[in-house]
């Protein structure tokens, strides 16, 4: 009678167990000491364990396989030796054998990041405990990998030996690398030693000299450094500056982690006053860096109150997305550039006065509740953002320049310097004797670009240039000419032009212009007057010009107090424009060109001309004393032209 399959398996296991006993008994006690350096013995002096290890390639002598590198390579082994060396592997083998229904060869999948060389070194120890690595025998990289494997598979003796070797090698040059490696371990002894080394050497580690190594740190390393609650205030300041340099190495990929890590910094636990004292006493951070740090404490949404004695541009440079800057009443001199997304620059009404320029070069920002004053000195500075000039009648650089999408400008007064000084004089106390000195006169903007040219005429200066999509300009009063909109889906609402040469100029599609009131200059801009020329020729004054674009909408456009001798245009639709819808306009002359415009309720004052060119326009409820039609396929309904 043949023996059963179960009987055969039992007999094989008994023979293998006997072999294991022989292997263990053949190991020399003297070779198991931790400080012994491994010398490869001659073949005749090998222990039985090493002999079996060397003959693993003979599949007839092995009964299991380890699959490595996602199945691209395999390592054979003896099941009972592996089970004896690692309880974790023993459990994995048992579960796998229980699933095998037909005595298939047992196969264990090793984590894909483990290479063949590393796993063979690990397996060698399971076969012969005398193969423990000695100090200096293995490179650090292999030692780290063996440590992780020993921890993963619960091989205590190999784990302890690797920890012992690495703790002896701990130094400032490798403490962060060891710290990063040991973060993955189930035990914390070596991790704590590495972190103590980081604390002792934090000044050196966070210095700019080590940037090349520091930029490779993982965000988890930073998180642990900030969360272990052991850094002093000065060390946290150094760590924060180093974190900023880490982010700057790859802003696109590290922005999100940078803001999350900023919230881990423990200064908030000091209280705001104590934190400020701690930061100031270190002398490490500039004012801008302190502002940036506190904005990180608040998750990037802290309101920063600023007064005229502070460096506003420095604070704007330190803004993170979502920052809110509140301007106290007073005068702020200079050109102020906003580059951080979703920044809010909010004044305290017209008493928050910027004598210079405002430039927005990002998205989703808000500028509101302030006045911007044109001065000759403010135009003397070079614009480092971009050399942009406006078309449509505005000369030079715009006083407010917006380049981006979904920005908002609201409740803003744009004044000439003389008008702003008049306002200040009116606000002066009535008991004051003599002429009041204009606010801000004691600290004028230095004229760093003096020329012999004549002063620029404020009436010809461009007020606002807005380049982008989905921007919104609301409740604007300007004494400077021209608000230029280039882009699509923008809105301009409730705008007053006071004594200016030109109004709104639009280039783009689906823009909305609503409630524009235009009060032109008292003298005719077409007269031969150098102050009213630009680009070598006279300027034609116009309240609204659409030079190109489709599906734009104009509602409630009015010109008031028009001098009888002024050749003023209320509206110009140029040849490259199409399908504009115009509603409820009154005042000066209208010139329509292009194709497919619809005008409803356009009523011109006496003497002004309604001129049509282009094709396929529709006019409803329009009237004018003078009417010139050179267009084609026009449709008029209930119109009166004399």
Automatic annotation (TrEMBL):
Organism expressing this protein natively: Folsomia candida (Springtail)
Database matches in InterPro entries: BTB/POZ_dom, Pectin_lyase_fold/virulence, SKP1/BTB/POZ_sf
Can you say what this protein is called? Answer: BTB/POZ domain-containing protein 2
Q: Where is the composition biased (Polar residues)?
A: 26-40
Question: Where do the record's region annotations for Disordered lie?
Answer: 1-44, 420-456
- Pfam family name, one: BTB
Which residue range or ranges hold the BTB domain?
A: 62-128
Composition bias (Basic residues) maps to 1-10
């Amino acid at each position: 009678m043949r023996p059963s399959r179960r009987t055969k398996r039992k007999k094989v296991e008994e023979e293998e167990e006997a072999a294991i006993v022989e292997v263990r008994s053949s190991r020399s006690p003297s070779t198991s000491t931790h400080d012994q350096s491994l010398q490869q013995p001659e073949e005749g002096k090998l222990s039985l364990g090493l002999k079996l290890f060397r003959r693993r390639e003979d599949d007839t002598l092995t009964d299991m396989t380890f699959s490595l590198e996602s199945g691209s390579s395999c390592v054979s082994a003896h099941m009972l030796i592996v089970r004896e060396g690692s309880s974790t592997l023993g459990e994995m083998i048992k579960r796998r054998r229980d699933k095998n229904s037909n005595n298939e060869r047992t196969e264990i999948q090793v984590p894909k990041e483990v290479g063949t060389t590393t796993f063979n070194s690990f397996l060698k120890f399971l076969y012969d405990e005398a193969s423990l690595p000695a100090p200096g025998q293995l490179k650090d990289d292999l030692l780290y990998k063996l440590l992780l494997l020993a921890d993963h598979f619960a091989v205590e003796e190999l784990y302890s030996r690797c920890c012992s070797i690495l703790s002896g090698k701990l130094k400032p040059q490798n403490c962060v690398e060891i710290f990063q490696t040991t973060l993955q371990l189930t035990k914390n002894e070596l991790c704590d030693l590495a972190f103590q080394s980081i604390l002792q050497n934090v000044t050196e580690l966070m210095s700019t000299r080590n940037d090349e190594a520091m930029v490779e740190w993982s965000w988890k390393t930073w998180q642990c450094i900030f969360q272990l609650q052991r850094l002093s205030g000065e060390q946290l300041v150094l760590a924060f500056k180093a974190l900023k340099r880490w982010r700057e190495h790859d802003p696109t990929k590290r922005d999100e982690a940078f803001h999350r890590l900023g919230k881990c910094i423990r200064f908030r636990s000091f209280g705001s006053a104590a934190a400020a004292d701690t930061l100031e006493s270190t002398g490490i951070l500039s004012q801008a860096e302190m502002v940036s740090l506190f904005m990180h404490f608040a998750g990037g949404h802290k309101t920063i109150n600023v007064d005229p004695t502070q460096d506003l541009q420095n604070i704007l440079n330190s803004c993170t997305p979502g920052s809110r800057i509140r301007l106290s009443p007073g005068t702020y001199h200079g050109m102020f550039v906003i580059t951080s997304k979703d920044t809010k620059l909010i004044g305290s009404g017209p008493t928050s006065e910027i004598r210079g320029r405002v430039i927005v070069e990002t998205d989703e920002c808000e500028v509101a509740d302030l006045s911007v004053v044109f001065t000759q000195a403010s135009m003397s500075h070079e614009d480092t953002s971009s050399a942009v000039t406006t078309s449509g009648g505005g000369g030079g650089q715009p006083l407010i320049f917006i380049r981006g999408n979904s920005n908002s400008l609201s409740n803003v007064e744009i004044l000439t310097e003389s008008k702003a000084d008049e306002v200040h004089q009116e606000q002066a106390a009535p008991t004051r004797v003599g002429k009041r000195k204009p606010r801000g006169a004691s600290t004028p903007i230095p004229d760093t670009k003096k020329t012999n040219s004549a002063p620029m005429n404020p009436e010809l200066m461009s007020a606002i240039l807005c380049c982008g999509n989905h921007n919104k300009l609301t409740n604007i009063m300007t004494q400077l000419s021209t608000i230029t909109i280039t882009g699509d889906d923008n809105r301009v609402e409730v705008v007053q032009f006071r004594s200016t040469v030109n109004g709104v100029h639009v280039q783009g599609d689906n823009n909305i212009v609503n409630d524009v009131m235009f009060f032109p200059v008292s003298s005719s801009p077409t007269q031969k007057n150098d102050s009213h020329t630009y680009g070598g020729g006279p300027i034609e004054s116009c309240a609204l010009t659409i030079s190109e674009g489709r599906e734009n909408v104009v509602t409630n456009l009015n010109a008031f107090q028009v001098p009888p001798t002024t050749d003023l245009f209320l509206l110009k639709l140029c040849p490259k424009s199409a399908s504009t819808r115009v509603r409820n306009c009154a005042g000066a002359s209208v010139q329509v060109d292009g194709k497919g415009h619809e005008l409803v309720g356009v009523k011109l004052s006496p003497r002004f001309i309604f001129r049509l060119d282009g094709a396929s326009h529709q006019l409803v409820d329009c009237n004018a004393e003078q009417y010139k039609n050179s267009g084609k396929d026009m449709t008029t309904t209930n119109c009166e032209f004399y």
